Amino acid sequence: MPEYSFDIEHAAPSSTKASACSVEPGSVKDMSEILHILGSTQMPFAVKGGGHATNPGFSSTRGIQIAMRRFNETKVNSASGTVEVGAGLTWDQVYATLALTGVNVVGGRMTGVGIAGLMLGGGYSYKTSQYGLALDNVAGYELVLPNGTVICVTSNDDDLWFGLRGIVTKFILKSHPQSDIWGGFLFYAENQLDAVKNALVEFQQKNDTKASVGVSLSYSSGQLSLLSLFFYDGPTSSGVFGDFLAIPTTGGNVSTMSFFDLIQNMGPLFGTNGLRQFCESIPVIHYSPALFDTFVNQTKLWGARLSPLDKNMTLSSALEPFDKGLFSHGSGSAYLPDRSHAVFPSVVTAQWSNASLDETMAIALRNMSKTINAAALADGQNVSHAAAYGNYALFGRPLEDLYGGNVERVRKIRAAIGPEDVMGLAGGWKF
Fold first, then answer.
1. Predicted pLDDT of residue 126
2. Is this structure's pTM higher than 0.85?
3. Exposed, middle or buried by CB within 10 Å (0-12, 13-18, 19+), for 341?
4. CB atoms within 10 A of CB 247
5. Are residue 173 and residue 187 in the same domain, yes or no?
6. Which domain holds residue 41?
């Protein structure tokens, strides 16, 4: 049954579960009827968009797998300055449709990432320093409530806008002009660690909202490798990446290209390659030299400990600075609970092949997170209550780590909108 296999498949095998069956709704009427049935039978279910979630059971289930892939339309509305996007699409599919339109949306940074998961988790983008999170650029949602009612949610719907309950079938996104961009990626040898560190520290002082940088530290087979990702929302980089470009490289390419080509070029860098994968979120306020060194040391330490257990193991840390004003484009949603100061969504990621090591990898990532968080506190960063990024956070974290003081309000919205708690039968962060 190829449809069933496609419906339950996730990017990482560790996230895939053998569901009792799968169902592919093709309309909001279908979705409404499905929710009615699930509510009356109390059958566990999961909703899968792109299948990129790395937490087991978040978009997979032993019960009923709802696959959203038939919600696959992208429609540009020039008059309203919006783009309607079906919840079953991936971001590279959306960007392919928009490539010749002269407009773009604030969305995912790699191939294969689903619209729905990124949007509902918050959504960091190459354009976040300019326009905020992906969820800050939503004009409306087409939503099927837990009782099967279909509505369009806007900022006028205070509670549902704040804490969505139900299944989103369509996102109405604000559009922005798009020309060619400058970007790409470069690899460096380990002996360039100090140069990359200094370049990252200096970049945070540039205050150019069109520029985005990410630095990845990866340990595999006894070696640490470095990778920098670059994006500039214009055909030239205006010199903002000069410190990085002065560092000798071992490979990679940066140039002027279309936004869609950038996403396609980045895709192979971050695939799971059929390996199991967990991530953990580590929010920081800035990357100081001392904190950068902690990321390096923890990546090497845990990489060396885990490598002998699995020949395919890779451990990586991603450092992602943004403009200090990235949260000023707020949308009044449950995430983020505090927009008064910037928080950068660092992430540590493990990939491996042996399923018996799942718990070992989760423990390692949690230990890395605790150590790096302690280093940030020692560095004078007020991260005690900084919100973790839900799309990076490892299963088992308290809701308060993501939503802070907003948890209680979301629970009240859940009780009012869906007293039967149909959505409690689904995976994800449990309110």
1. 98
2. yes
3. exposed
4. 17
5. no
6. 2-67
Asked whether residue 418 is assigned to any structural domain, the reply reads no
Quick count: other Cβ atoms within 10 Å of Cβ 95?
23
Q: How far apart are CA 200 and CA 194, in angstroms?
A: 10
- Domain-terminating residue out of 67, 101, 117: 67
Assess whether 161 and 49 both reside in one domain.
Answer: no
Asked if the peptide bond before residue 336 counts as cis, ω within 30 degrees of 0, the response is yes
15 and 132 together in one domain: no
Residue 405 lies in a domain: no
- Rg of the chain over Cα atoms, rounded to whole angstroms, equals 21
The count of domains in the chain is 3
Helix (H) or strand (E) holding 390: none
Q: How many helices and strands, by DSSP H and E, does the chain display?
A: 13, 17
User: In this structure, how many other beta carbons lie within 10 angstroms of the beta carbon of residue 407?
Assistant: 19
In sequence order, the β-bridge partners of residue 345 are 283
Residue whose pair of structure tokens reads 């039978």 in the numeric block: 41
- CA distances to 75, 145, 258, 373, 423 from 68, rounded to whole Å, are 17, 16, 28, 37, 16
**One domain, residues 19 and 96:** no
pLDDT-flagged residues of the chain (< 50): none
- Answer for the pair 129, 210: CB distance below 8 angstroms, yes or no: yes
Q: What was the pLDDT predicted at 220?
A: 97
- Position 112 scores a pLDDT of 93
At 255, list the tokens. 């140039």
